């Protein structure tokens, strides 16, 4: 384990923001994680996974611990299901492709989501009609203060839309080291409920889709709408889709009957922030090196040398405008550091 000083995090955050860590260490085993936490007990620490869901607006005056635990394996199986475990530092998309190659079903709709496996439970990642809570069994995590391992079952995680216990009661207290998923071996629950997937499969003349067909359709949709962080810095959806009271929705709907919406419950409706942002005129706009993506207004982008502060300023401008024009408060999905 080598601790490096004044370390650039540009390559460690998908926004590609230049920010420095006071100290940086990459961790390759649970034992090393325990040692580093014990040796640096009283110092400020910052845990870094794939860096795909954060906006760095300043240098980090702490020891940055980059979780780079690797390995994935089948734990057990029966005739219908397989239990697979991945270490936290595995790249999510590579893990998904590994499951599909073995004809294990359940993760295909979440192909090409940036980031590492260990951070997926934190915000219950999801796309195209599926969330990880649908296949999640448990995750192991180390308590930062005591270095004692704890298993969080699905019930313990309190999953919600882009929500979990790790954003609330357990926030900043644990480091997820591995995750277990239960996937199907046969009778796969193919989910084409999301309109874009059906359209994409029709385009490809696929009638009875396999897991690979779904994955390929999702990849094609994402590539057409969402920028590749390797080419254009971004953190996926910058905002959450707001969930508003039905009464408020009805008022906005009366003025904008064409606004898409999803009924969440009898009293709540979710509306797409991307639509609101596009309607407010921000889609494709550029302010210096910070901007709003041309194909998906929910995604803020770094054209090269934007600072985190510049991107943050754009996000605040968007929030204020949406509040003024629609009376709807939209909340960041990414962690602003
Ligand atoms: N829309 C617009 N303009 C835009 C973007 C979207 O009018 O610029 C409209 C679309 O036409 C559609 C609706 O908004 O009617 C929803 O758009 P889309 O299907 O692209 O999905 P989203 O709600 O904008 C969410 C997730 C994405 C995920 C997609 C697909 C959140 C915050 N985002 O986006 O997740 O890939 O659904 O399931 O829930 C991420 O979290 O980083 C992410 C990319």
From TrEMBL:
Its main location: cytoplasm. Keywords: Cell cycle, Cell division, Cell shape, Cell wall biogenesis/degradation, Cytoplasm, FAD, Flavoprotein, NADP, Oxidoreductase, Peptidoglycan synthesis. One of its GO terms (cellular component) is cytosol. One of its GO terms (molecular function) is FAD binding. InterPro entries: FAD-bd_PCMH, FAD-bd_PCMH-like_sf, FAD-bd_PCMH_sub1, FAD-bd_PCMH_sub2, MurB, MurB_C, MurB_C_sf, Oxid_FAD_bind_N. Pathway: Cell wall biogenesis; peptidoglycan biosynthesis. It comes from the Bacteria. Cell wall formation. GO terms for biological process: cell division; cell wall organization; peptidoglycan biosynthetic process; regulation of cell shape. Its cofactor is FAD. Residues 17-186 form the FAD-binding PCMH-type domain. It catalyses: UDP-N-acetyl-alpha-D-muramate + NADP(+) = UDP-N-acetyl-3-O-(1-carboxyvinyl)-alpha-D-glucosamine + NADPH + H(+). Its EC number is 1.3.1.98. The active site is at 162, 237 (proton donor), 333. Gene3D superfamilies: 3.30.465.10, UDP-N-acetylenolpyruvoylglucosamine reductase, C-terminal domain, Uridine Diphospho-n-acetylenolpyruvylglucosamine Reductase, domain 2. Pfam families: FAD_binding_4, MurB_C. This is UDP-N-acetylenolpyruvoylglucosamine reductase. PANTHER family: UDP-N-ACETYLENOLPYRUVOYLGLUCOSAMINE REDUCTASE. Belongs to the MurB family. NCBIfam families: murB, PRK00046.1, PRK13903.1. It is found in: Cytoplasm.
């Amino acid at each position: 384990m080598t601790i490096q000083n004044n370390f650039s995090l540009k390559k460690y955050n998908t926004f590609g923001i230049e920010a420095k860590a006071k100290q940086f260490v990459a961790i390759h085993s649970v034992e090393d994680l325990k040692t580093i936490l014990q040796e640096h007990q009283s110092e400020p620490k910052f845990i870094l996974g794939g860096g795909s869901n954060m906006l760095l607006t300043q240098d980090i005056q702490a020891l940055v611990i980059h979780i780079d635990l690797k390995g994935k394996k089948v734990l057990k199986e029966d005739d219908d299901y397989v239990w697979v475990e991945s270490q936290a530092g595995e790249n999510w998309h590579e893990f998904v492709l590994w499951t599909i190659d073995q004809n294990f079903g359940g993760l295909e709709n979440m192909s090409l989501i940036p980031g590492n496996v260990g951070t997926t439970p934190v915000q219950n990642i999801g796309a195209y009609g599926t969330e990880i809570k649908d296949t999640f069994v448990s995750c192991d995590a180390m308590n930062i203060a005591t270095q004692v391992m704890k298993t969080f079952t699905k019930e313990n995680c309190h999953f919600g839309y882009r929500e979990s216990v790790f954003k609330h009661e357990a926030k900043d207290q644990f480091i997820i080291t591995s995750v277990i998923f239960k996937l199907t071996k046969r009778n796969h629950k193919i989910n084409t409920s999301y309109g874009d997937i059906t359209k994409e499969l029709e385009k490809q003349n696929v009638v009875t889709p396999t897991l690979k067909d779904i994955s390929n359709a999702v990849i094609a949709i994402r590539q057409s709408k969402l920028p590749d962080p390797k080419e254009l810095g971004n953190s996926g959806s910058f905002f959450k889709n707001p969930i508003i009271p039905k009464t408020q929705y009805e008022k906005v709907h009366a003025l904008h009957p064409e606004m898409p919406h999803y009924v969440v419950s009898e009293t709540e409706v979710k509306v797409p922030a991307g639509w609101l942002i596009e309607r407010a005129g921000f889609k494709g706009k550029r302010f210096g090196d910070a901007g709003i993506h041309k194909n998906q207004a929910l995604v803020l982008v770094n054209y090269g040398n934007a600072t985190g502060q510049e991107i943050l300023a754009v996000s605040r401008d968007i929030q204020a405008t949406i509040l003024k024009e629609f009376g709807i408060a939209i909340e960041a999905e990414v962690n602003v550091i």
